[in-house]
Amino acid sequence: MLSYIIRRILSLIPVLIGVSIIVFLFIHMIPGDPVLAILGERATVENVERARHELGLDRPLWEQYFLYVNKIFHGDLGRSIRSNTPVSQEMATKFPATAELSIFAMIIALIVGLPAGIISAAKRNSIFDTTVMIGALIGVSMPIFWLGLMLAFLFSIFLKWLPFSGRLDSTIILPIQTNFLLLDSLLAGNWEAFKNSLAHLILPSLALSTIPMAIIARMTRSCLLEELGQDYIRTARAKGLKESSVLLRHALKNALLPVVTIIGLETGALLSGAILTETIFSWPGIGRWIYMAIQSRDYPIVQGATLLIALIYVLVNLLVDISYAFLDPRIRVQ
After folding, report:
1. What is the C-alpha separation between 241 and 323, in angstroms, rounded?
2. Check whether domain 95-275 has CATH 1.10.3720.10, yes or no
3. N or C: which end of the chain has fewer CB within 10 A?
4. Which pLDDT tens digit goes with each residue over 138-154?
């Protein structure tokens, strides 16, 4: 098992190198001069040359790449054009917001999607199965921006049950330690802040969970139905095993590999930032941060965020590969 994990980690090295090259070339592929984008069109020639020298853009491309990689290893992703603050510093405040929202949304998707898919497969062609599949189709097809607005109107404006913008009420004072507000409120022992931050999480996480929830339910049902038609399932039933044991201990375990893959891909997508959801609910996360950076042509932020998203996908895929080895012993010996 350890050798398998080491092989998977080593296989990521060329991927990370390729990602770093693409992200580095990103700023060179953008039309126009990045220095002029930073200083403005009215900048003098002397200021342009000085900035080009300070940024290292007057050096050969290969030398610029190695300087860029060296900065990354030292945690330097550049400075924001708008705020002149380090990109890594802003990222440290934005990513926890997205991670908190994504984890909560994925928990909702798993709690609802997995049991719905399992029960649908066990009760194939029943009313429950038909209802779940219609609901899954609606969940995949429903635009997030429309669903988010409807949830905000119903639960926040009409019923006034839940807040729909931000992460915490401005009247609540909470010392920030990790930028994960639920964790910070627990560390501070502030239950009012915990309940308030949890209330702010509900609406955006519900809106964000609909698509992965629907995909997980459909994939679970499809894979489980395929396994239930295999010969070893008929053999298990012929031996007199309970249907629940056949379904959960035998069929479900073998059907989990494709489901785990989908969960990993959806988790990576959620952690990369949900632009529409974060914009609708004024959630200060990665997606909204990137959207505003693109609008203002803040290239260092876009470049640093692209690198972060690529790294997230690589790490999530690594975790999915490792989970395969636990679910299927045959993979460990390959």
Report:
1. 28
2. yes
3. C
4. 888 888 888 888 888 88
